[in-house]
Amino acid sequence: MVIRLAAPLSKDSIVDGEGLRTVLWTQGCLLKCPGCHNPHTHDPAGGTVVSVEAVKFELRQIRLQRGITFAGGEPFLQVAACAEIARFVKQRGWNVWCYTGFTHEQLSLNPAFAPLLEQVDVLIDGPFVLAQRDLTLRFRGSRNQRLLRLERGRILAVE
Ligand code: SF4
Prior knowledge:
By secondary structure, the chain is α/β, with parallel strands linked by helices. Helix content is about 20%, strand content about 25%. The chain has a single domain (about 1-159), classed as TIM Barrel (Alpha-Beta Barrel), CATH 3.20.20.
């Protein structure tokens, strides 16, 4: 299995979720939100294709992280590969955060998204809306986005 990445893994991030985290930057997003900070991640044919096994190998070398954060780009355009990586890091005791331009409701309605959604502990959902941009929000860019704590895909808490 392969995954298309926008950038190398970023380890030791403290701004993409709680605790020290490794960020996986997926390539490809169809939403093209005005004001998106990562426009280079939009092209579904851009970035670099690597094997999921190579990503796992690299993750094995990374220590002292609380979890992984899937960002992009749109992680849910690469459900199978992201789900495989999420399962792998969970076996190592890491938690899983994921940014998505979809809402939780949209993801829940489509069973194709379930393999990844069921692995996610915290979902930051919804597109970036420039008119609702708010620099004071924790881990989010605009007020429409929610920080959702999930268990097996279901919402436990909304922040
Ligand atoms: S969903 Fe995220 S990556 Fe995609 S265009 Fe919007 S802000 Fe950018």
